[in-house]
Amino acid sequence: MQRRVFLAGAAVTLLPFAAEATPEALADAIREVTGGASLRAGKVTLDIPPIVENGNTVPMSVSVESPMTADDHVKAIHVFNEKNPQPHVFNAWLSPASGKAVVGTRIKLADTQKIVAIAETSRGEFWSASAEVIITIAACIEDVT
Amino acid sequence: MANVLVNAPKTAKKGDTIEIKALIMHPMETGFRPGTNGRIIPRNIVEDFTVTWNGREIFRMRMSPAIAANPFVSFFTVASESGTVVLRWSGDEGFVAEHRVAIAVT
Predict the structure, then answer these.
(1) What is B4-31+42-105's CATH topology?
(2) What span, in angstroms and rounded, lies between the C-alpha atoms of A90 and A113?
(3) pLDDT tens-digit readout, B26-47
C-alpha cells in the first residue's frame, strides 16, 4: 500500500507540464460558462470537416435550433477545444434580433481532437454538440522559418 | 487601418433575416510559437468583435488565439430599420479597426 501510494505520487510529479489543454482544462472551461448546469445533447449542429489537411484554418459553423423570440432565444454560443494550448475558441453573444442562431468562423487546431459547441438559451438551458476532427498538419506547433 | 472585407446586403426587406460576413487582415499571433531567435513571439490577437446597428448591439464575439489568422466571422441579424451597421474589432497592442456599412430597409 505504502509503495503504491509512493508510485502514484511519483508518477504525478514526473508528468511533464502539458503544453496543451487537457480534458480537465476543457471541463473547467465549460464549467466556467455553464456554472455547473448540466449539458444536454441536441439542438446544436456543429459543422466542421471530419478530416482536415491544414490545422491553421479550419472552417466551422455552429447552428442552433431556436425560435429566437424574446422569451426563448439563444443568448450565447461557446466553442471549446480539447488539445490546443488553451481550451477556449470563441464566445459569441446573440439576441432575438439575430433572427437565426448561426455563427461561422475559421479556427486553428493544434492536433487531432474534439471540438465542443455549447448553446446557452434565455431559459437557462445548455445544449451541446461535439465533433472529432482529424488533423494532418497541425497549427501553432511548427517554428516560424 | 487594417484591411477589412465585409459582405452585407445593401438593401433588405423589413423583418428579413440577413447574413453579414466580415473578414479582417490580422496575424492572430498565438503567443505560443517560438520565432527564428527561439524566443516566443508575443501574443497579438483580435480579442473583441462587436457589431452595432444604429448604435444597438446586434452581435458580439470574444476571440481566442484559436481563431485562424485573418479572422472571418459570419452571423445573422433581422433587418429592422434603415441605417448604419458598425463593425468594430479590437485587440492586443492597441489594435482597433472599424468598418461601416449602410443598409436600406424597405
Answers:
(1) Immunoglobulin-like (2.60.40)
(2) 16
(3) 999 988 888 888 888 999 999 9
